[in-house]
Amino acid sequence: MDILQRVELFSPDLIAGRVAELADEINRDYAGREPLMVCVLKGAYMFFADLTRRITLPLEIDFLRVSSYGRSDASSGSIRFLDDMHIPLAGRDVILVDDIVDSGLTMDFLRREISARDVNSLRIAALIDKFERREIDLRVDYAGFRLNEGYVVGYGLDFAERGRELPAIYALRRQDQA
Ligand code: IMP
Ligand code: MG
After folding, report:
1. Once rounded to an integer, what is the mean pLDDT over residues 93-117?
2. pTM
3. Active site residue 93
4. Peptide bond into 42 cis (omega under 30)
């Protein structure tokens, strides 16, 4: 029988250090502006809370949820809003914050939807930039960690809704058991 084993990749201290560096970059890049930071639920909730508390600029925050497609149905047409943002986006400097960019289909959908609302600028932050399965040419402006492959959980990221509360990030490994 297959069981999944967790192997720690990024410790809480390592994550905190990296999040602080990303916040510093954003503080520098957006000096004199008031960005609107948007959290893509649910996966980005922990990253978003830690990142925004280190932003020293005036800031507004909002949240959105999108439907996730099944892995066998990876077409961008199947992605839609479950909960949309509430703050008007026109003229705003929007920073979209997600947990992980994998194929890029979700971010591509959001990028199109948000760009169509007359924003002043749009940048993407993601805790993890996983590029092995990338299908869309998409640049993550603020990437916490880059991974080539694997499935990760913890610090907001889940496997079938499990593992979001873990303070570290783990890779799931298949372990064959008699
Ligand atoms: P994409 O549309 O393929 O880029 O997928 C993005 C979404 O898939 C992310 O926001 C996650 O919710 C989920 N996802 C992709 N890879 C992982 C992973 O390794 N762990 C947890 N969730 C993942
Ligand atoms: Mg997600």
Report:
1. 96
2. 0.94
3. no
4. yes
Distance CA 158, CA 155 (A): 9
What is the number of the ligand 1 atom nearest to the C-alpha of 109? 2
Q: In degrees rounded to 5, what are phi and psi of residue 43?
A: -55, -30
Q: Of the residues 50, 98, 102, 129, which is catalytic?
A: 102
The string of pLDDT tens digits covering residues 64-88 is: 999 976 554 445 458 999 999 999 9
For 113-121, the CB contacts below 8 A with 24+ separation are: 113/81, 114/38, 114/89, 117/88, 117/89, 117/90, 118/89, 118/90, 118/91, 119/89, 119/90, 119/91, 119/92, 119/93, 119/94, 120/91, 120/92, 120/93, 121/93, 121/94
CB 34 within 8 A of CB 60: yes
Strand pairing class (169-176; 2-10): antiparallel
